[in-house]
Amino acid sequence: MATLITGASAGLGAEYARAFAARGHDLVLVARRQEALETLATDLRAAHGVTVTVLARDLATAAAGAELVAATESAGITVDVLVNNAGFGTHGDLVDADPQRLADEIQLNCATLVDLTVRYLSGMRSRGRGTIINIASTAGFQPVPHMAVYGATKAFVLSFSEALWAEEKPHGIRVLAVCPGATDTEFFDIAGESAALGRKRTARQVVDRTLRELDSGKPSFVDGLANAVTAHLLTRLVPRRLLITVTGRLMGGTR
Description:
Blueprint: E1 2-6, H1 11-22, E2 26-31, H2 34-48, E3 52-56, H3 64-74, E4 79-84, H4 99-127, E5 130-135, H5 148-168, E6 173-179, H6 187-191, H7 203-213, E7 220-222, H8 225-237, H9 240-250
Parallel strand pairs: 1-2, 1-4, 2-3, 4-5, 5-6, 6-7
């Protein structure tokens, strides 16, 4: 049984790697940083005796999904668990953004995620088993001014994953969308600390909750009680216009 994890060099991805290795899963670790992946792989091999394959890839390209699947197939690796964790966020007004950076964000957060999912899903279907974990966000529950593209990509991931959950449940394949709030990872090194709302949860807390929820049969979950209240309750009770305005102010907009 092999688990493939994207964005595995740090943060949530590395924590998922540790958790699945502890369960005896062989791993395929994917991220851009070869050295960080190799260090993690060495530690996991020593600690758990599992096979760890490192594939350094930039997944923010249109051909990345096909190339990654070709690499695992040529290595004879059967992927039973897919963790689509790779992603990043941009913070600021859209008018000030670099168009190529936004295109990369959409490619990585949405297009590559779908591409990898559909390419590995066919094998899972034929075997009658498999697990797909997609990392969404509490940002996917409402528009997020000053992180408009990021919020929209995570809304896409959430909707896509929940629909796929319904399609694949009769075929023995588990699909779960994980919706963390602010988490103590490198994400904010890119998005900026002003993109964090509320107290940060740890990567370990998110991963532990994921493993529990996999057996619940749910299509998605929000990590953390305060985050769940905001995502499921306030977004329904607060008028949409007010919700968008308040979210924009919290995200540090100046216009």
